[in-house]
Amino acid sequence: MKTKIKKLIMEGQDFLVTTHIDPDGDAIGSAFAFAFALRSLGKKATVYFNDQVPYRYEFLPGPQITHTMPHGMYDAVFVLDCGSLFRIGKGHEGAALLKPLVNIDHHDTNDLFGTVNLVDKKASSTGEIIYRLLKYLKITIDKNMAENIYTAVFTDTGSLRYENTSLSAYRVCEEMVKAGANPSQIAMMIYENHPKERYLLLGEVLRTLATYNGTVAIAHVTGDMFEKTGTNSEFVDGFVEFIKEIRGIEVAVLMRELDKDLYKISMRGKGTIDVAAICNMFGGGGHRNAAGCRIEGTIEETRRKLLDALCAGQ
Q: Cβ neighbours of residue 74 under 8 Å, at least 6 residues apart?
C-alpha cells in the first residue's frame, strides 16, 4: 500500500486531505502533519474539516483549513483516521466520487472504503501510521510535523497510558521530541489550559451520573446545559474519561444531545467488554476500549437501548 501511495504522491501535484467530524488530537495532528509533508515535496495540499478545530488544539501549527468541501479534480484524496467515509461530514457524497481515495486509519471497525487502504489496526494511532509513511517517503520531519505527530500519538493513547500504548508509540514520540516537539508544552496546552466554563459544564454533567450493576456508568449532556454554562460540544472532550476512572466501572458512557431525540454516544471500556462491538450495533464503531455512535430516541429510550445492548454484549 505504501508503494501505491508513494506513486500517487510522486506522480500527482494537487491533493485533498480530510478527517472525521468532531476531530480529536489524532485526526488533527495526522491531517496537519501530512499536509505539511506534502507541501515539503512541493505539492499542493488542501485541508478540509467539517468542524472547527477544538480550542485545546488551536496551538498546533497547521495549514489553512476550509470548512466547505472543495469541488474540482484532485490527484488523490487522503482520508485520515476515519473508519467510514460518511464520517468526514457533509462533503462525503462528493468525496466518494473523487478517485483515487486513500484511506489511512487504525480503527478496528474500518470498512476499507478507499481505492487504496493503508489500515493498521495494531497501530496506536493514525499519527503513528503517518510517521511510518513519512519515513518511507524519506521526508525530513520538521518541528511543525513533529508537534502534530506527537500530539496525535500522545492523545490517542490517553497520554501514553491506554492499552494501545505500544513500544512503537514510545519510539515515535521519542523521534518527534528529537525533531523538536516539546512534551511538557504540548501536555500543558491540551490538559491544563481549559476555560473555567468547562468545569461548570462538568459539574452539570456529573449530576446526571448513574451506575448500573456497579460496572456501567452513564451520564448525559444536553443543549440546555451548554446554554446555561456558555459552552458547546467541544467542551465535553475528555468527560467520558473522567467517568471511566470510577473504581469498578468497566464501561463508561456519555450521551450528548445533538437534536431532539438524537444523541451522540461516547463509550469507553477497560477491556472486559468490546465497546466497538456495542457501538457497531447502532451503526458506529471505533476500538475495543473506545468507540462511538448515534442513537435516536428520548434520553430514557437511548439509555435503555444502551443498557440492553451492553447486557447482550456481556
A: 12, 14, 15, 16, 46, 98
